[in-house]
Amino acid sequence: KALLSTRRFGHAIHYVESVDSTQWLAHQGVRSGAKEGALFLADEQTQGRGRMGRKWHSPPRSGIWMSLLLQPQIPLNLAPQLTLMASVGVTRAIRRETGLPVTIKWPNDLLIDGKKVCGILTELRGEQDQIHYVVLGIGMNVNTPAASFPEDLKTIATSLAAESGRTYRRAKLIAAILEELEHVYDLYLTEGFEPIRHSWESFACMLGQSVTAHTPQGPRQGIARGLHASGALLLETDEGVVVPVYSADIRQV
Ligand code: BTN
Q1: Helix H or strand E segment including 68
Q2: Could you tell me the domains of the chain?
Q3: How far is CA 80 from CA 74, 85, 179, 209, in A?
Q4: Which of 56, 148, 172, 241 falls 20 to 30 Å from 228 in CA-CA distance?
Q5: How far is 91 from 86, CA to CA, in rounded Å?
Q6: How many CB atoms lie within 10 A of CB 3?
Q7: Quick one: pLDDT at residue 1?
Q8: 70-114 pLDDT, tens per residue?
Q9: Where is the BPL/LPL catalytic domain (predicted)?
Q10: Could you give the ipTM of this predicted complex?
Q11: Which residues line ligand 1 (CB under 6 A)?
């Protein structure tokens, strides 16, 4: 707490040693009156959740497993912008604290040297077309030794320590994440998505390159051109047409 210079984010902290998922803690927290900026934090998750129903490996004390409660007054259809906004804030925080060259893979995977170091999961509840609240889940591999990742993750995952040979104080990183998130969030609420879109593009790792987008409708090949205000990735096809991709796994070709 002494490390924090935010106005709202992280002033209420709900910490537990071990939990199935901090996302669940946050949803519970809302039911008991938690407010915007409340932080839910655990040293270990036994059922960490990732995007698209995947599991998130969250061993004790080696990473940051946290969920932040947001209550923006924005329509439900703008929710994807919040995830992209979060990836910009967290990228800034890691760069600032470690100097490591973190980039963003659409929509919001944080990579170092092509390997994933951090993932973001947003879950929201709304009524009609208004957001009631958003739980912003952030999972960051901080001091995980490269050799201790499970076999299936070894080639695709990394940690800040594995990339730099240093270890990091998680509390200091969390403070930096909260500061940068509060900053981009305030910017988003006052100026809208455009400045965030620009920052996102400046951190993106595949723009101008040939990629395959594995969409639910099948693969699509093209050159990644940028980010649309809807949050979609703009893909220029072989015919020279730019199309938005709303849901896909992106791989470089
Ligand atoms: C992804 O890249 O698939 C998103 C991973 C999000 C993991 C974090 S860890 C804290 C929070 N609690 C969870 O169960 N998941 C998110």
Answers
A1: strand 63-70
A2: 13-203 (3.30.930.10), 210-252 (2.30.30.100)
A3: 11, 9, 21, 23
A4: 56
A5: 8
A6: 14
A7: 63
A8: 999 999 999 999 999 999 999 999 999 999 999 999 999 999 999
A9: 1-189
A10: 0.99
A11: 21-23, 45, 48-51, 54, 56, 58, 65-67, 109, 119-121, 137-139
Residue 194 carries which side chain, given as an amino acid letter?
A: E
Question: Across the chain, what does the average pLDDT equal?
Answer: 96
Q: Quick check: 196 and 188 in contact, CB under 8 A?
A: yes
Residue 238 corresponds to which amino acid? D
DSSP 20: S
Q: Are 224 and 250 in contact (CB under 8 A)?
A: yes
Q: Please give the average per-residue pLDDT across 7-32, as a whole number.
A: 97
**Nearest protein Cα to ligand 1, atom 16:** 137
3-state secondary structure labels for all residues of 94-110 = HHHHHCCCCEEECCCEE
pLDDT digits 0-9 by tens, 108-167 = 999 999 999 999 999 999 988 999 999 999 999 999 999 999 999 999 999 999 999 999
